[in-house]
Amino acid sequence: MEVPLYHRDERAEKLSRLQGFTYLRAADGTITKTKLEASNTFEEKRTNNLLVRKFTLPNVQEGAVIEYSYLVTSTFFDNYQDWTFQREIPTRWSEYRTSIPQVYYYKILYRGYLPLATNESSVGSVSLLLSNRLGDNAGPGAGMDVGTSGLQMSTEQHRWVVRNAPAFREEPYSTTPRDYLAHMAFELVGIQMPNEKYRDLTDSWTKKNKVLLESEEFGKAFTNSKFLAAEVQPLVAKYPEPAPRAAAVRELVLKAVKYDGTNRYWATGSLKHSYELHRGTAADVNLLLIAALREAGLPVEPVLLSTRSHGAVSQEFTLLEQFNYVVALVTLPDNKELLLDATEPLLPAGTLPTRCLN
């Protein structure tokens, strides 16, 4: 089993109250209960900010029943941990409890096809110990810890239970399991500290679009296309019609840059560098394609999507983390649209790779 624990600077999520048992019924009907020992737990550094705590239940064999529970304490309210109720083995009881200070407001979304046996909410309280530090303009003492103060705060408590969840089995041609598994997801939408106004943290898709187009790694990356002029302009003269011209520009990019198998929607560096290197991620290749199409005088926009292995996109959550791929959208006469991808040389123009059909 794995428990992800996020950390940044001096802050870190903490795991406590970990306990687990394995139950095994013998031939004579007696049940043996084996406890999880500390020696069966270990840590793995997954990234610079993610530590995974792993534990292995003892004496697990066919017919055994395992039971475990733990508590995660976190101050990363913008990264509230999701919970998956269903696994690759049958689950008799899966329960998730949360206790959130009533200064943080979340959009909570349950996804999956299994009914919730329990869906309860209540109000509790928590004592917080706040550290007081001098501000940046405090002279030589700036940043100094000058004491602590206590604060009693109400909490919103939730309890969700899924009972008798069947084992999940992946089917051929299905998308990522997360599209089907019963799970609870969270998005921080607002904060209201004591004696302060409510701060709305949600962004519309329109605002997200604006931020992306102004980003150095996305929108500004494909606006500089002059280095492509010598290669693209002859195609403009040769193909006066938009659709054949778009296909020819795509063929140019296909031959110039090879896809390295990495999926993302932001450029890893300058597109000129990828062009000269003749290799890049899906974003490097397709943002370069967009730049070339613009240089060819075609009306083109980037389109974000999520690959089949990355999961379905929820319109309820305005999170860019849901996306991991970008393609080009060319508007043709009569308002016809042409989606283009330049990572697969064996596919014709207008056909996206299977991984993009989510």
Q: Which radius of gyration do the C-alpha atoms yield?
A: 26 Å
Number of helical segments with 4 or more residues: 5
Annotated CATH topology of the largest domain? C8orf32 fold
Order of helices and strands: EEEEEEEEEEEEEEHHHEHEHEEE
Query: How many domain units?
Result: 3
> How large is the share of residues in beta strands?
35-45%
Q: For the terminal residues, how far apart are their CA atoms?
A: 29 Å
What is the strand tally?
19
Q: In this structure, how is the largest beta sheet organized?
A: 4 strands, antiparallel
Quickly give the CATH architecture of the largest domain. Answer: Roll
Shape category: elongated
Indicate the structural class: alpha+beta
Overall pLDDT: 91
Amount of helix? 10-25%
Oligomer: single chain
CATH class of the largest domain: Alpha Beta
Low-pLDDT sequence parts? 134-143
Q: Provide the spatial order of strands within the biggest beta sheet.
A: 2-1-6-5
Short account of what is shown:
With 358 residues, the chain is of the alpha+beta class.
Write the layout of secondary structure elements.
Layout: E1 2-8, E2 11-12, E3 14-25, E4 31-35, E5 41-47, E6 50-55, E7 65-73, E8 83-84, E9 91-101, E10 104-111, E11 118-133, E12 145-165, E13 183-191, E14 199-200, H1 205-213, H2 229-238, H3 242-256, E15 258-259, H4 271-277, E16 279-280, H5 282-295, E17 300-305, E18 325-331, E19 337-340
Parallel strand pairs: 15-16
Antiparallel strand pairs: 1-2, 1-6, 3-4, 3-7, 5-6, 8-13, 9-12, 10-13, 11-12, 13-14, 17-18, 18-19
Helix pairs in contact: 2-3, 3-5, 4-5
